[in-house]
Amino acid sequence: MKNKRLIIILSIVVCILLIPLIAMQFTDEVNWTLVDFIIGGIVLFGFGFLIDLVLSKLKTSRHKVLIITILILILILIWMELAVGLFNSPIAGS
User: Fold this and answer.
1) Can you tell me whether residue 71 is helix, strand or coil?
2) Which distant-in-sequence residues (6+ apart) come within 8 Å of 31 by Cβ?
3) Is-above-0.90 flag for pTM?
């Protein structure tokens, strides 16, 4: 069962990372390097693993939904910061 969840997480991460890879074939607006794909994969897999951990450890649905919502919001903020430098931090992409 644990291997099945890991395969699902990896499949979702690969599908998400295929979006910019395919977009790079059709437009010059998307310009990712190998490092971008590696960092994106690490971030997505890390959050996928955290969500899996929340789903397996917490008992009540209310807590699961709350924690997963917070994790997804954090993921979105980190992704935006890496992409365009929303908060002008040292890890900003622009």
Assistant:
1) helix
2) 24
3) no
